[in-house]
Amino acid sequence: MFHDRREAGELLARELLHLRDGDPVVLGLPRGGVAVGHAIASVLGAPLDTVLVRKIGAPWQPELAIGAIADSGTPEILIDDAVVREFDIPTDYLQAETARQIGEIERRRQAYCAGRPSVPIEGRTAIVVDDGIATGATMRVALRAVRHRDPARLVLAVPVAARQTLAALRGEVDEAVCLEATADLGAIGYYYDDFHQMTDREVIDLLAEATVAAR
To answer: CA 46, CA 210: separation in Å to the nearest integer?
Structure first.
């Protein structure tokens, strides 16, 4: 459906133009969501920032989310208790993996922000963006972390998502905008010609570029 994350963001931005008068802030989930968010921020003339969030993966399959953590002053932690019980995941593994991911969030904060303060979102329209949503664990915890910062309006924006997951996330937001919600998602990368794994350097450059443009 999309050539790359930039094109996805530009197409998504067309569906978000009605938010321009709400003093919007675009918040991308690293890494891919920052590229989509950068395109949206450019179209809306809005500042770009990140929501630092990490998946807690299963011991035998790191890509299977059993929880997630978002940076929110005090970390926002969400654990899927049903999955933990079903697979009898040890408590000591959960504690160790949670600590490891909190450490990775701190590393990314130092790398991405480099002393730059977070963009204030209190009383503004916060648009939380990723390049796609499968299980929704990281997005859910990101939305809750952003909600704690008291935006006037909380919007979820994503190019492609699993239909059932998107429906479940609608209760977390004031508005959800998705270009393609499908019952049979498969891998998010199937929807992009270019879905390369972004580097920290790419994220840093996009955030720096957006900061200069917002001045």
So the answer is: 9
